[in-house]
Structure formats: structure tokens, C-alpha cells
Specification:
Pfam families: IF4E. By secondary structure, the chain is of the alpha+beta class. 33% of the residues lie in helices and 26% in strands.
Length: 221
């Protein structure tokens, strides 16, 4: 895949509709999201952008300069119906890769990662039972944190493939250093707090994971 084919003249419709939102993190936290799910959700501002084609994307992207996003603020591009909140029903079992890049190249990396999302390049490398949720950019004092969210953190194929796809599709001068990329399940963030109505989902998932691990260990004996 060559990202240069996604020019402003590209007329093909996107497979999914996309929308953008912005949010703000608390100063004392290193995480992109710090309040509990409901509180953070209330802080999100929907930008009213509906992206259904590459042409729509370029209109949005050209009118949303990254250098106007303030420190500790974030901007997200997510599939319609998904929210950039760890505790959202569609995200609660998922995770994300985060790439720390210098501010000088952050806008270019961000544009390319967004195109990988709406062009379905990221979705195509995921496990068949997994789904891309969206991508985000958070501004820090001397860096941009660019994240790729997917729905099922238990799918190792997806976890490995997201990293490989991003690194393969970025030119060498834009690739983050190996120690500036990390993966984390949403549930492992310090600020994660499962809504009571979804705790049963997590409990069931944990039991299934424990059983799978036990079965694997037994098979290796």
C-alpha cells in the first residue's frame, strides 16, 4: 500500500463513517485519559466532523492544524458509534499502541496514521474477530503521543500486526524509536474504572482467559 494514493482527489467512499472529538487530560497524569469513564466522556467535545470519504478527510485535516492543539489536549478520529473512552462498551476489552514522536514530525505521522485508519489498512491486518476503533493524538510538552485503538486486546495477531503495519508504512525518517512505542490494555491504565453494568463482561473474559491459559499449560505437559 502506498499512502500517497490517498490524495485529496481520491473519490472512493470510506467503508465506515468517522467522527472527530477532542478532550483534555489532567496535568498530574501520564495517561491520555485520567478521569473515570463517565467524567472523561462528559469532557469530550465532538467536533461535528463527519468523514465518509478521503476527500472529507482532507477537508477536516486541513482545517484542524495540530499546532493549535494545546499541551495535554487530545484529538481523536474514531469510527462512528465508538467513543475514545477506555470504559466504553466497545472498547472495554481492547487496548492501544502508543507512539511517542517529536513534535517536529508529529503532524506528518498523525496524518499518515489517520489515513491508515480510514483507508482500512489497519483493519485489514487485524484478527478476523477484531475491529479497529480509532486513532488519537495527544500533545505533551516536547512530544506527540499517537495511539491506535482496537477492540480485543486478547488477539495477539492484532497487537503484533498493528505495530508492524504502522512501522512498515511510515518512511524511515518518521518511524518512532523502538523504545518510544508501547502497547497497553485499557484495563491496565491506572485510571480505568469499569462501569458496574460491564463488570460481568470483564469477569467472564477473565475466566475464559484463565481457562485458556490452563488448557495450554496442560497441553504442554
Amino acid at each position: 500500500m502506498e499512502l500517497s494514493r490517498y490524495t485529496p482527489e481520491w473519490t472512493e467512499e470510506a467503508t465506515y463513517g468517522w467522527s472527530s472529538a477532542c478532550g483534555r487530560s489532567c496535568p498530574e497524569s501520564k495517561d491520555q485519559q485520567t478521569a473515570d469513564g463517565e467524567e472523561y466522556k462528559s469532557q469530550l467535545e465532538q467536533l461535528g466532523t463527519q468523514i465518509e470519504s478521503v476527500q472529507d478527510f482532507w477537508k477536516y485535516n486541513n482545517n484542524t492544524p495540530v499546532d493549535q492543539i494545546r499541551t495535554r489536549e487530545s484529538i481523536y478520529l474514531f469510527k462512528q458509534g465508538f467513543k475514545p473512552v477506555w470504559e466504553d462498551r466497545r472498547n472495554i476489552s481492547g487496548g492501544s499502541w502508543t507512539f511517542r514522536v517529536p513534535k517536529a514530525i508529529g503532524p506528518d505521522v498523525w496524518t499518515r496514521v489517520q489515513l491508515l485508519a480510514i483507508g482500512e489498512e489497519l483493519q485489514d491486518v487485524l484478527d478476523d474477530d477484531d475491529q479497529l476503533c480509532g486513532v488519537g493524538l495527544s500533545v505533551r510538552f516536547n512530544a506527540h503521543l499517537i495511539s491506535v485503538w482496537h477492540r480485543d486486546a486478547s488477539k495477539k495477531k492484532s497487537v503484533d500486526a498493528i505495530l508492524r503495519c504502522v512501522l512498515d508504512q511510515l518512511p524511515a525518517e518518521l518511524r518512532p524509536k523502538p523504545d518510544n512505542s508501547f502497547y497497553k490494555r485499557h484495563q491496565d491504565h491506572q485510571g480505568f474504572k469499569a462501569p458496574p453494568e460491564l463488570q460481568a463482561v470483564l469477569d467472564s473474559q477473565k475466566r475464559a482467559d484463565d481457562k485458556a491459559a490452563a488448557d495450554k499449560a496442560a497441553a504442554e505437559v
